[in-house]
User: Fold these one by one.
Assistant:
Number 1:
Amino acid sequence: MANKSVSKTAGTNKSFIDKMGGQQFIVLIIVIVMFIFFSAMSPGFRKYTTVVSILDYSYYIALMAIGVTFPLLTGGVDLSIGTGLICYSLIGGLLVRQHGMPVAVGMLVTILIGIVFGIINGCLVALMDLPPFLATLCTCMITRGFGAFVVGGYGIPWPAAGQEGGWFRSIFKIQMGGQNIPIGFLWIILLVIIMSFVLNHTKMGRYTRAIGSNKEATRLSGVNVKFYHIMAYVICGLFAGLAAIAYSAIFATVQPGSGAGFEMDAIGGAIVGGVSMSGAVGNVTGTLIGVFVICLLKTGLPFIGLTANWQQIITGFVLIIAVLIDIFKRKKESGQ
Amino acid sequence: MGGRKVESIKQNPLVKKVGFNRIVLCIVLLLMYGLFCALTGGDFFGMRRILSALNYAYFLGFLSLAVTFVIATGGIDFSIGPVMFCCALMAGFCFTMYGMPMPAALLISLVIGLAFGIFNGYLVAYWNVPSFITSMASMNIAKGLASVFTKTQSVSWPQSSQEGGWFRNLVTIEDIPVGLIILIVIAVVCAILLNQTKMGRYILSLGSNKEAVRLSGVNVKKWEMSAYVVCGLLVGIAAIFFVGAYSTVQPGYGDQYNNEAIAGCVMGGTSMAGGLASISGTIIGVFIISLLQEGIMALGLDKNLQLIITGIIVIVAVFADVVARRRKN
Amino acid sequence: MGEVILTMKGIDKSFPGVHALDHVDLEVRKGEVHALMGENGAGKSTLMKVLTGIYKKDSGTITYEGKEVEFHNTREAQDAGVVIVHQELNMLGHLTVAQNIFIGREFKKGIRIDDKKMNEEAKKLFDRMHIDIDPKETMSKLTVGKQQMCEIAKAISHKAKVIIFDEPSAALTESEIEELFKIIRDLRDQGLGIVYISHRMDEIKVITDRVTVMRDGAYVGTLITKDCTKDDIINMMVGRVIYEDPKTQNMTPKGSPVVLKVDHLNAGKMVQDVSFELHKGEVLGFSGLMGAGRTETMRALFGADPIDSGDIYINGQKVTIKSPQDAVKHGIGYLSEDRKRYGIVVQKSVAENTTMADLDEFSNGPFINKKKEKEVANKYVESLATKTPSVDQLVVNLSGGNQQKVVIAKWLTRNCDILIFDEPTRGIDVGAKNEIYKLMNQLAAEGKAIIMVSSEMTEILRMSDRIVVMCEGKKTGELDISEATQENIMNMATREIS
Amino acid sequence: GCGGGDEATTSDNGDAATSEEDSSGGGDYTFEVVVKSFQSTYWQAAIQGIEAAKEELGVKVNTTGPNAESDIADQVNMLNNAISQNPDGIALAANDQNAVLDSLQDALDADIPVVCFDTGVPDAPEGSVIATIATDNEAAGAVAAENMYNVIKDTIANATEPVRIGEVNQDATSANISGRGMGFINKMKELIEADGKTVAVIGNQFYVDQVENNGDEGSADVIIEVAVPAQTTVELSATEASNIMNKDDTIAIFGSNQVTAEGVLTANQNLNVLAATPDEGIVGVGFDAGATLKAAVADGTLIGAVTQAPVDQGNLAIHALYDYCEGKEVSDIPTDSYWYDASNMEEEDIAPNLYD
Ligand SMILES: Nc1ncnc2c1ncn2[C@@H]1O[C@H](COP(=O)(O)OP(=O)(O)OP(=O)(O)O)[C@@H](O)[C@H]1O
Ligand SMILES: Nc1ncnc2c1ncn2[C@@H]1O[C@H](COP(=O)(O)OP(=O)(O)OP(=O)(O)O)[C@@H](O)[C@H]1O
Ligand SMILES: [Mg+2]
Ligand SMILES: [Mg+2]
């Protein structure tokens, strides 16, 4: 995919900042419209608890999406985050459940394995020159198999709230006066701010974009392209590890063999939020907004009385429409 | 003009024709078979195992062929698995619930596949929606549509002895692998389509540089869409062979086959960047995957190992290709 | 000229099927501008890529500042003071100008990149070069010429001792070239060694001190520029003298019919109210500065970009052209200026590219007649003297000039009546240029109508029967060749700007 | 016997071949077990039972299963593979009743006896399945309904506005789940109607269509809402549960297997609505066990749950195969399901079936 982006020489007469800001804005409006629509349609949706539910289920997707923004910006992709998430969580959970390790150690291991697979992906792509789609498709299969293999195929429940070690669930949600406070959302916002900074004001971010814009030119400029290319995947792996913890904290049991398809939600969110599949264009704030479109569809549609199956159909169409709006907008712009 | 010394690359004509990569894959395939025979103490030897492995190879083969066309244009299709299930579910439901005759059901499967192909192709080619998004959308739509249509029921196609069960003869008659013959015939048709016809030439060329082909006065939209249409039709065929071998499909699934189908295709030398595709490679790749799946099971090993090993083999195969190309340059 | 700073001796390099460099020598001194000349595919770029560590040499030695060196990547070369401005633009379209210039060596404030300081430094650099570019502008929004200037600014900003310019002028306007020469002289006076690659003979005489000529990957010789003539150099490059004078009179047969009439064409802001006529057997030159909108006009005419208003008549018939397909159907062929992006399909063979526009002619029903395809491809490889091991070679492996020939072959195969050549000889050496000129003349004589867009004045004067001049999207003049001079064309080309 | 076979699950094929020859002499049998998957701990418990039987009888057992219960094709492959090992018998928990029919015919042709456990295969070729050892799922669902009704009976009787009872079923395809789901619905409907109220069942079409004399949603006193997630995943089950539990008129909810019951608990982590009585919140009932569920029952979050007897089932399946090989008569065995709550979890006949 990356080679499609090379040599975007003169001729594109619009600023990419405009374009990106533009799409973010459109998507933000879509989120708001959807929210108003669902609220109008369903009394259940208007409740505080619903908002908390949507947030709850959005954490792991949001974390994956923030991470995968980096490979996307290099013009690559990481398809292994979904099955990876389950794999990391299974292994971390296994240590806690079967080997009696403290939850903190389990969490650390979860993140570390995420980073290890990030390094593997990065090496496959940057050192061995495999197409990112393909390399991560393979690690997708490998993590899916590996996680299930290590735990012997059994589902792993992380400690429940109230149990020994259950404290980690309150990283994402604390109770105060009988109400749940979704503090996980604050973490997400914090991470988005940090990653925005990394992307826009550090070498790491600069080179990530540069690689997506023109890898060869970046290399010829004397940048250690391999290192930074690997790092994009490492960040993605790190965030997949964090997502694994969010997932374990929100849901009771982690089932091996699941997780395929999570990456679609995350990547779809990023793209809807304005990240370009051909690299260099996009931002983590956009990604976050895009993720909310996906999550609203996933958690919002059931509230207006649609069965799960209609949800899927509608999700499909909304995805296309979100992208089409952007395409038509751009067409109109360039037509002038 | 000066007489530049132009050395042509010396290569065995056979190797050149078939491709080094594919020869290696064939050897891998044979070695794997030998290895499994040895490890299982000869139990693996014989038709029964091969037939069983072939069951898996049929539908996967058609899926892989299907996605080869899309990948050749530089696109990607993650909806093949779910669409295959959607075809099988809706067509099967027409047969079991609405009492349609079997030929009509088979036709419906193809038509649904085709419809998704047209849908994907139209969005990608005419409206410039990234193929990743289109396929993600049609994956959701296929799952949802099938669930709504069948009321989330799984659908079982008739057994050989039941009415309409004759369609299983497409897969095997007694111990004759009819499906293999059909797969090979269709693969040959695909190969001709890709290498000998205008359509194939344009598909591969636009996969490599779409703008240049457009400026040559070619209707690139039509040809790009045609790749997705062929893909859809092949997915419809895959659905028939899936139920021919495994009878039952369940709504809401199918994505588990995407990766294996794409893996088979890429293992055989089709480039994810587009412009480069090999049908024979795809078929060999699919055989490797299905043999692996059968072999792992025969050894009594974990199914998960198959995923891991497939992943590693694809990485090695593609890396070998990368190295070979690097050495050339 | 000072002491020797860089010596390359017996450099050898092979690609599969091509012996690109055959024991080539090169010596660069401090304070000189050293021209590297040779036909397309002679190996100039390859030699420079070997020097800067992009390719690994097979054998030979490189001595730099008295020590034998081997750079493994551009970073090492840069750090040692050897910098290259590449033939193909190497820019990051999504980043700003300043970010491009300082990529890989950003100023930092803690872990933060100091974008402010980078912008200031870039501004200083541009001021020194007397060019007006906003460092905060996104790179892809600049014209090709300005992008090229940024590349040069980037090279200068390194503390370089040797700078290599690989065809820097190909994308620059006359005035920009003037600026460039000033900069180069400045650098030379500071004692830098400069390698200058170009196909433009005039420039060589103006700017360089010595010339090294290569032919077919081999070293031919080195000359002192002021002691030799243009012909000497060309002779060394191609082994024979070829030089032709400008056309002096319109060669179009009297009363030949109008095949193409463009009436008040508007397309976007770069094509405003353009009208012209094209006769059978005529070569119509389109002159103007870069960004004058010539390419846009041709793309609109060809259906590659949408037309806002205006009419197109072919052989007196009004036609609608909405896509390149329509244009090709009406017998128009378009040779784009950016062959990498719009001309060739790099992953396909020479033969496959040759028949791309006319595949129907080579098919029986849906099937392609590959034998016929190869025959025709071979015919054009011969008649255009394309350097390729065989017609099965992938186009990606050909040198720039030879790629251009493949694109020409594509349109010749299609046998179009109206041919648009947009910068047909950009980056093509004299020998090959001559072949292409001959071909164009021959085609015109056969009764084809040709539009030739070119930024090279000599080319316009030599080839055109009539000349249309454009400036800022508008047609500013039309001249018969008999009345055309460099001066009055430049006048029209800058009419609105000044 | 082959002694303490710790490694039974990985017994290699060389041994299998020899034991086959021995088997004519009696005693040393090899059995293949194909389970639905290993995803939920339910199967861990079943395998415990199998292991116990294996040690007790001194037979060899190979256990396999696909990655997920939805991988029907994989399971068919595994079953075919098991048949081609030519074991003395096969114990099967089929993911799909129809997909395995051809394979069962093959087993019959190869004279390999098959025992179905956990799930029956009603249309199996005559003679291929020698015994079915499974829970009566309709009855199990009914048990859940009865126990739930005891708690919510008064609320329903006193309600002026319609009230809602939720049911989350993992799918509409497997006989177990649909049996349980319908068992619950039918029993609940029967109980409510016996008390003179009207019932409407809404939601998933498959379940709604099976209800006889379904009431009208607009006028019914009690609405039973059936939700089925698009896929059998934890997060989608939780979403469906959340949706029902978020409605103001919901008084009770039933998750009909481990995954969906955990979905109910996940939703509750956020909503905090589960309670012991309808006055305080929503009454939750689960199915199966597992650490999470057990904890929830123990602390009263769920008023209780129904558990099957996976350990017994696994054990009995192997015993049935053994008996058959020894020439004894075998027949179908319906295994029990038990209602458990905080008060009886420690009891002797319940505790062993409450796997983690
Ligand atoms: N990566 C490569 N692989 C194979 N052949 C190559 C490669 N790069 C260059 N060549 C060949 O080496 C020869 C020298 O090419 P090079 O680009 O150095 O020519 P050049 O003198 O710069 O020509 P031009 O004036 O057209 O830029 C050509 O025949 C070209 O086809
Ligand atoms: N004012 C402008 N704003 C943005 N882009 C411009 C502007 N002027 C020119 N360009 C771009 O610069 C490139 C050169 O312009 P164009 O091709 O129209 O000029 P031309 O007369 O054909 O010159 P040449 O063929 O020598 O490049 C084009 O791709 C055009 O889109
Ligand atoms: Mg060159
Ligand atoms: Mg131009």
Note: Residues 123 and 327 of chain A are 34 Å apart (CA to CA).
Number 2:
Amino acid sequence: MSAATADVATIGHRLALQRRGTVAVLVLVVLLASLRYGDAFYSGINLTSYFDDAVKYSLIALGMTFVIMTGGIDLSVGSVILLAGVAGGLASPHGAVVAVLVGVGTGAAVGAVNGLLIAHSRLEPFVVTLATLLWARGLGLQLADTQTVVYGTGTLQSLARDKIFGLTTGFWLMILLFVLAAVALKFTPWGRTVLAIGDSEESTALLGVPTRLPKFSVYLLSGALAGLAGVVLGSQTGSVSMDTGVGWELIAVAAVVVGGTLLTGGVGSIGGTLAGLLLLQVIFTIINFENGRGGIEINSYWQNVVRGAFLLVVVLLQTGVGRGRKKS
Amino acid sequence: MTDLATRPAAASVLRNTDWPSFIRRYGAAIVLALLVLFNIIFTDNFLDLRNILFVQLRQAAPTAIVALGMALVIATGGIDLSVGAVVALSGQVTAVFLLDGVPPLVALPIGILVGVAAGLFNGTLVSRFGIQPMIATLVLFTAGRGLAQVVTGGRIQTVNQPIVEFLGLGVIAGLPISVFSLIVITIAIVLVTRFTPAGTKLLAVGGNERAAGLVGIRTKRVKTMAYVVAGGLAGFVGLLELGRIQASDATNAGLNMELDAIAAVAVAGTTLAGGTFSPGRTIIGVLMLRLLQNTLVAHGIPREVAQIAQGLIIVAAIYLLRRSRDAR
Amino acid sequence: MTDTTPEGPLLEMRGVTKSFRGARALDDATMTVGRHQIRALIGQNGAGKSTLIKILTGVYRRDGGEVRLDGRPVDFRSTADAQKSGVVTIYQEVNLVPKLSVAENIFLGRFPRRRGLVDWATMRAGARDALATLSLDIDVTRPLGSYRVATQQMTAIARAVSLEARLLVLDEPTSSLAEREVETLFGVMRSLRDSGVSMVFVSHRMDELYEICEDVTVLRDGRTVAEESLASLNQYELVSKMLGRAAEQVASGARPAARPRQQAEPVLSVTNAASAPRLRDASIDVYAGQVQGVAGLLGSGRSELLRSVFGADPLDSGEIKVNGDRPSLRTPGEAIANRLAFLTEDRRAEGIVPHMSVRDNLTLALLPKLTRRGIVDRKRQRQIVTDYIARLGIKAQADQPIVELSGGNQQKVLLARWLATEPAVLLLDEPTRGIDVSAKAEILALVDKLAADGMGVLLVSSELEEVVSACDDVTVLRDGVSVARVSLDRLSEESLMAVMASGEAVPSSDVPQKDNADD
Amino acid sequence: DSGGTGSSGNAAAGAASPAANCAIATAADPGNSQPADGTPVAENAPKLAQKDTYRVAFSQNANNGAWRIAETQSMQDEAKRLGYQIQVTDAQNNQSKQIQDIRSLIAQKPDALFVAPMTEEIGTVIGEAKSAGIPVFLIDRTVSNAQAKAGTDYVTTIVSDFVQEGKRAAYAMAKATGGTGKVIALEGTTGSSSAVDRKKGFEDALKQCPGLELVATQDADNQRARAQDITESLLQANPDVTAVYAQGDDMAMGAIAAIRAAGKVPGKDILVVSGDGSKEALQSIVDGAMVANVECNPRFGPKAFEVMKQYAAGDEVPTKILNEDRLFDASNAAEFVSQAY
Ligand SMILES: Nc1ncnc2c1ncn2[C@@H]1O[C@H](COP(=O)(O)OP(=O)(O)OP(=O)(O)O)[C@@H](O)[C@H]1O
Ligand SMILES: Nc1ncnc2c1ncn2[C@@H]1O[C@H](COP(=O)(O)OP(=O)(O)OP(=O)(O)O)[C@@H](O)[C@H]1O
Ligand SMILES: [Mg+2]
Ligand SMILES: [Mg+2]
């Protein structure tokens, strides 16, 4: 599905515009919401909970951004969160450091399996990670003996609740990782190679650039970040339940695409992913708030409808933007 | 190009057989045969005709019908994540109409129409608006089930009507309705793709959309049609599922069916990149995955372990297929 | 390279064999490249040139034979591997990453760094320098894909040159280049040779080979049939070695006698056609029984003209008449229904459906006509396919996937695809790009015959020689405007070149305005 | 009324003579468990002012399936009846969404917060409500003691005793089958406390009845279709099964359909015991397809608001309040079917 050469110039502009559009809509929505709901909306606890909740999704979306930039996809992240969250939880009695290491390590290990099969054996990412979605969840359930895994109330939990400049460590962790990732994308050979692979893997190889390792690495990274997300989740909520992560991979994919990363690879933005994710998340919050107003009672079933419709509106606006430009 | 005069000896037949393409063609069938063999030996009453037709095949048929639609969409280089939700939506709409006293002759076609409409919606987003198939169908994946829940208020409502009972328990030509429909639908699809230009057009669009456009094929229409057929089949399966449990279940009907269908298409040796279509192997893929699941259940394997096994089998299957694909 | 270069050839490939799914692509192929040498590698389409190169650089694994570099056996596993040993390759068809910037394309895999991070400023400067050696001055921060194919090809060359190779392999680098660019390239190649770099050069244009190469390796059906000095062979001897038959049988390419117009009215008439952004105001007439040429510099809008006539691109304004009528031609489907046919210049991206069989590829445009009461007539389909495979001498099985064919054979299948629709007007965009001499001669002969049989042909070609020898009449496009018409009596490469460059009509040639176009 | 219909249990159709090796086949329904004496009262939880009307919030963990819908409905109906304003969120079966829901509810500062916890482990967020000065009432499930303290972080929890429900199901099954046979069990959502506890209660009680052999246990996720598929597969592999225990009614309905599809008669060839007490289940007891059903009453509204009002009035509220569940069988199903949810 490679775009016609003549389209290449427009694609870049289009996605850049889309990113700005996403940020603009995000700002607009937040402004409108705070006007409508007043104090309660940005009062400390809600902002904190909003960002805390966003952390885990943002971590998998970050990994997903790199995977998608290579033209792949990682459907297994939701299951990896469960598996790594469980592993981290079981390790948590041995201290926060051990829990984090075990969680991230578990995620990375699963990511490495995906990466090997995709980069080395050249299997299709969609199917490989679909299979991993199954076995990693099974393994997580097995490991936890299908019981919710509790995180010891140790350093990890207080760390999760500690605040720096009024926001939790989780928030700052998220910001830090996104900044690092943005730098890595723009300023490391690895980042550029990842984009090149997504653009045309065959060409990249024929230019004499090894492609296996970078391709492997994005799945490793995605797994490791999902693992981290599992531990973060566990420490924030004190436990990891067996339903954790079901369907989250699609939330991440949606955020990445809304954020202006091309699903076929080659063009991407880290900041866009964050904006896309925060935008999707703010919708949840607003639906909850709207329910509280008592005016229109948004039946919870409508929430999914609204979310789907919102996704539709965003992508339609984006293509509209793209078309408008093409004509001019 | 073997010379007819020099018939190769058996040994050289083995040597000359194109093993890679043999495995590719029959890989899923071989695994299926092994599973059947295992069950004949280790599972009581497996060879019972009633079991084969009314348990194994009947359970597999709805997924197989959905997978046929999915294979069409995948042949165009797309993917349809919404089929599971469409199954739910069509079933719920039909159930509600039936409960309202609408005659079955009207209510059942409406269910299929719901699926067709959903397919039209997906197809339009993909072909007219150029939205990535995954994202385009994610809209209905999210909103479709929500709508289904809205329609029934999330309740499971028993539909005690002869027509529903017939859909679930009826027998035509000694076969359960779902198995009978699967056979009819398969024959129809095979006939249409073999003998009319539709099959060639489909593969041309999936293989090289721009080239297809330049030979006068209306690529947008072909793509849309694939989604419409997939949607219509999902709508029909919604009716079968309604009949199967004799009740509407918005939350669980068709749950994860899209992933089962995609996995089946993949283990059948079809690449998700488009340009290939094989109804026979798709059905074999479904049967294989379904029988695997049933075998694990019948032998008391807990669900989480079964999930691990399924994941591993899928990986193993596509690994073998790939080995054969580009052995060079 | 220092003076202490070891004796013996730089590269030796001996007895190389390679099969794809049982089909021999190479069978005892041999190639020796000396030092300070530019070696031509020639052969018909499908002879195995690209395969031999890919085996050298490890893209394909060889089934047998050996490869020695500097006398030592080597076994590269990938292009990267080969590059480490100084073997740099520009593969056939542009293989770059279009969405990244020009600069990144040049420095991918070896980014200049500062404190571990990519140093964009140095990279941009380096890219500009690399392109300057090819006299190219473009914005290196723009995505490569936004430039035309020739520029992309030059970028690939710039990258390869800047890699400081010992052995540079160029697989048909000139097929999408114009003459001036080819000259620039040759200049660079000469200076590289003088600095000690050896090169392998693949091209189907004989004059290029004689201009730049000293020695030649000739492949035929996967076998090396000659390794000689070019000077010792004249063009006819070379071609006859390539083909394995007497050179006299190869069409000479001499201008056929003038073909009479078969009707007074043009079968296709385009007036003031415009299509943003490249086509601004083009008018052209095509008569049944004649070959109408379109000439112009790269980017002059020739392809756009053909595309918008065929409904592949939207026509913003202008009028198109077919046999005097003004049918709707907004989609290729409508164009085909009006008996137009269009052979695209980009075979890979817009022509072939790669994994589909030759049979289905060949009959793709014919599908509606093959269908009776909704059913495809497979028997007739088979007949037609067998017929065209024989008529055009296509080397392929009907049920073989078309990707497995060599470029020339793919091109013939695509041509057959359109001939099978029995069009009234055939629009040909660079029909012989990347096609070997014999296939090219065959295709041009075929075009000649089609015209003689009453078809109207519109031919776009960047090879002036081809335009001059094949066309009855040539319209020159410049910046999307048809600026002149040159008719048979004054058709020569020189006169065409002059018009194309200046945009001035040659005195007394017709101005392409509709009213006085009739002569 | 403790729903003690125990002695009349023998009326179940086709009850075989009690096997000697089954201690519980003839025992009476063990009935509801009683809260341990001296359940502490809520003292340190945030106080609730006495007002004419309240603005309350309810975090439901998943608003699907008849049971949860009935629960939500009951909360909404009761609030409406009392003239309170109620805001409901639906976590859609997702623990972390529920935590997010609760936090956003807290931000809106309701007078009181009702929570139907997804899992026991959402306790930390309950503590946040306390910090915000909002009294919390848990219904139908509780939270882990390690994370939130009853009477301090939240006022009280109104729950059913799931272990007891499982136990009562085992008794009912033993009685109906006469203490012999092969049993398959269908479990609810993996890891949920109701599934874990019912399984524990059922299996522990079954130990006293070696004649009832548990041949297979499968997770059917509270889904009707899934339960149907699984039962079909299990019946095919174990054609001599004589009883099915489904932890929830949806699964029971799926199992009954599967039994029918296998050409057997539910209630005769294979006896089905289930839990929840839905209208559909009661009807099938009346129809003879199901033999017994242990109620798990979803109608928490009246009780929940009554407790809230007591608490506002300053009455002593115990930190754990047990719901009273009934046992339905052929003797009383017809009587209750019309009121069932
Ligand atoms: N990947 C492949 N799979 C199957 N067959 C192939 C493959 N690549 C090349 N071939 C076959 O090998 C033979 C040699 O092809 P090759 O591309 O080397 O020819 P070439 O001399 O470069 O031709 P051209 O002048 O058209 O570029 C052809 O018959 C071609 O069909
Ligand atoms: N916006 C653009 N910017 C730069 N290059 C473009 C643009 N649009 C098209 N091109 C490329 O420029 C090239 C020349 O355009 P066009 O095909 O109209 O002219 P042409 O005279 O037919 O040249 P060619 O010999 O390449 O066919 C094409 O390869 C096309 O892909
Ligand atoms: Mg070649
Ligand atoms: Mg052109």
Note: The first strand of chain B starts at residue 157 and ends at 158.
